[in-house]
């Protein structure tokens, strides 16, 4: 589990390629510390809880938080807790008939939809209102999502683009597009056209983003690894190439990014690169 003050990513395995991550940000009692969020290409099913000092939940929101291709600094308001389950792009299409680019940079409220009254969502939201802990809510959400996805298994597994996307995630975006096309017996031009039409992002951009996010995970797990070795491990030509990737995706140098991932972002006024502060 990675935790930076009031942001944490939980480790629980669903053995499903369609649930990518479980995360929690915010605090019941105080204003959470700011956290720099790297770009990502998935939507999260999110419960937002607003706590009051008495320890009760005063307001509950439920929705989809879309992907972002620009880094940003996020800091929930005091007493606000976000509980999120990250869904693969294929799962988003199967469950909500939405492509990731259709919800990019957006929060789509599901609070007033029929989904809230569904057999699986209502019990979870009822528990959230009663103050059940986030890990338990996430486990229930994951089980419910997987149960719903089981109705779409045939359609998901029959799509070649879905298979390619899953392969790319398992590979961390390392395989060249030419090799992917050959492996799945499609031409490169057709792969780019069909993949983009299906998932809302081109395969090269998706692979590059997957590589960078895998690099960040490695940074968390192996902080003592040299930057030169890290560049080599992730297919970058040298440390200068690695520096350019950090500048491109999050707007700060690798050492600053490493510090922030351990300690959080402490000063907005001295830290304007890489996105907009959301207060």
Please outline the major beta sheet: 7 strands, antiparallel
Low-confidence stretches: 268-279
Global morphology = globular
Strand order of the largest sheet: 1-2-3-8-5-6-9
Q: What distance separates the N and C termini?
A: 26 Å
SS field, number of helical segments:
11
Q: Mean of residue pLDDT?
A: 88
Instruction: Kindly name the structural category.
Output: alpha+beta
Number of strands: 10
Approximate helicity band: 40-55%
Beta-strand percentage? 15-25%
Radius of gyration: 19 Å
Q: How many structural units, i.e. domains?
A: 2
| SSE string | EEEEEEEEHEHHHHHHHHHHE
Write up this protein.
The protein has 279 residues and is α+β, with helices and mostly antiparallel strands. The protein folds into two domains: 2-152; 157-278, Arc Repressor Mutant, subunit A (Orthogonal Bundle). It contains eleven helices and ten strands. It has helices at residues 89-96, 121-130, 134-149, 153-158, 160-171, 177-183, 188-199, 203-221, 227-233, 239-249, 254-263; strands at residues 2-4, 7-10, 19-26, 35-37, 43-51, 57-65, 72-74, 80-87, 107-109, 277-278. The strands form two sheets. Strands 1-2-3-8-5-6-9 form a seven-stranded antiparallel sheet. It has a three-stranded mixed sheet with strand order 4-7-10, with no helix packed on it. Strand 2 and strand 3 form a beta hairpin. The chain is globular, with a radius of gyration of 19 Å. The two termini are 26 Å apart.
